[in-house]
Design goal:
By secondary structure, the protein is mainly α. The protein has 5 helices and 4 strands. The chain has one domain.
């Protein structure tokens, strides 16, 4: 049985979003380790659960109406031309761990990086099997996709995903 035949037609769009998200998350997690000694440092992460729920909703909508609809959430916004903006969130669990045990904090960040890398590799392989190639995410697009602490709606950017 060909498992790819069970995947909805718009799965390439979902996989491209996962690849984008994991690129952004990798950058945030690396920053968490690189800037650990910076005064006023605050550990952050991407809104992973929010993103997963968003994807579940989009896939459910696709199964119901044969259209893929990404809905904005408090930290994730979609715009014209397949643009997506994500605001990193404070990681209070990691911050508390850092205050108690620096080694445990670093281990947590490494484990998150490993999990993120696995998620990306799976998404890339599924995309490759579905489309024959993997979408490239340019560095400039990644910078524009990360929303700062200001209002997210003022940070709209253009980002084309592979179809």
């Amino acid at each position: 049985m060909d498992l790819l035949s069970l995947i909805p037609d718009n799965i390439s769009e979902v996989l491209a979003r996962i690849i984008q998200f994991t690129d952004l998350r990798r950058r945030i997690l690396q920053r968490n380790m690189r800037e650990i000694d910076t005064p006023g440092f605050l550990s952050r992460d991407m809104p992973v659960r929010e993103f997963a729920e968003l994807l579940n909703g989009a896939i459910a909508e696709h199964l119901r109406s044969r259209r893929l609809l990404f809905r904005d959430t408090p930290n994730i916004k979609f715009g014209a031309h397949n643009s997506m903006q994500i605001r990193p969130i404070a990681d209070t669990h990691a911050q508390a761990k850092l205050q108690k045990d620096r080694g445990a904090y670093i281990e947590l960040q490494v484990n998150k990086l490993l999990e993120n890398a696995l998620n990306r590799r799976v998404a890339e392989e599924l995309f490759r099997q579905k489309c024959g190639t993997c979408p490239a995410v340019p560095q400039a697009s990644l910078d524009a996709m990360l929303a700062g602490d200001g209002p997210i709606e003022n940070s709209s950017t253009h980002f084309d995903t592979a179809n």
